[in-house]
Amino acid sequence: xxxxxxxxxxxxxxxxxxxxxxxxxxxxxxxxxxxxxxxxxxxxxxxxxxxxxxxxxxxxxxxxxxxxxxxxxxxxxxxxxxxxxxxxxxxxxxxxxxxxxxxxxxxxxxx
Amino acid sequence: xxxxxxxxxxxxxxxxxxxxxxxxxxxxxxxxxxxxxxxxxxxxxxxxxxxxxxxxxxxxxxxxxxxxxxxxxxxxxxxxxxxxxxxxxxxxxxxxxxxxxxxxxxxxxxxxx
Lengths: 111, 113
Description:
The structure holds 2 protein chains of 2 kinds. Chain A is mainly β. In chain A, the strands form 2 sheets. In chain A, strands 2, 4, 5, 6, 9, 10 and 11 form a 7-stranded mixed β-sheet that branches. Chain A has a 4-stranded antiparallel β-sheet with strand order 1-3-8-7, with no helix packed on it. The relative contact order of chain A is 0.34. By secondary structure, chain B is an all-beta fold. In chain B, strands 2, 5, 6, 10, 11 and 12 form a 6-stranded mixed β-sheet that branches. Chain B has a 4-stranded antiparallel β-sheet with strand order 3-9-8-7, with no helix packed on it. In chain B, strand 5 and strand 6 form a beta hairpin. At the A-B interface, strand 4, strand 5, strand 9 and strand 10 of A face strand 6 and strand 11 of B.
């Protein structure tokens, strides 16, 4: 069965650079969630989209933005990267039918 | 606001022994409850979930969890642990029909031979 695809799997950036993470939800899933998991931390909700509109927002820095496109894939854009942004970024998708599926994450390292 | 507490940061268990991981949640109504497992550097794999109905939930890999409303708990159990169960386990809570989950801090399980 198709799963949530995240790309890239690993990303290394320098401070003050910009990064774009991509998420391809399971086909026919209309909702996407982004989570950030710092080293040794639990995942923290960042932002979600339903039918291409932002549906909820968590502890997402103003330097970060995200959107969901017409094909339902989503991108998380991070600017002015800081060392503290180094984390595993998860995307999850759901169809609202009592299911939530996580991708394998993108590991971002900021040097 | 919803929150989850996993009181045990680290548990060591012998292979073949039983395992119980504790999870207490805070939520005003009947929550959606989840247990996820994460191997190092890997994604989150859903073990089981509770939405309603039977309070004893069966999951994958031989895991089960019991929802106890009176104790605000959703403890995870496995009768006989395998070495491959060594991982970090996260309990999570969400509002009905809302997957903006709040995760607990996680419990790291070490399995000794």
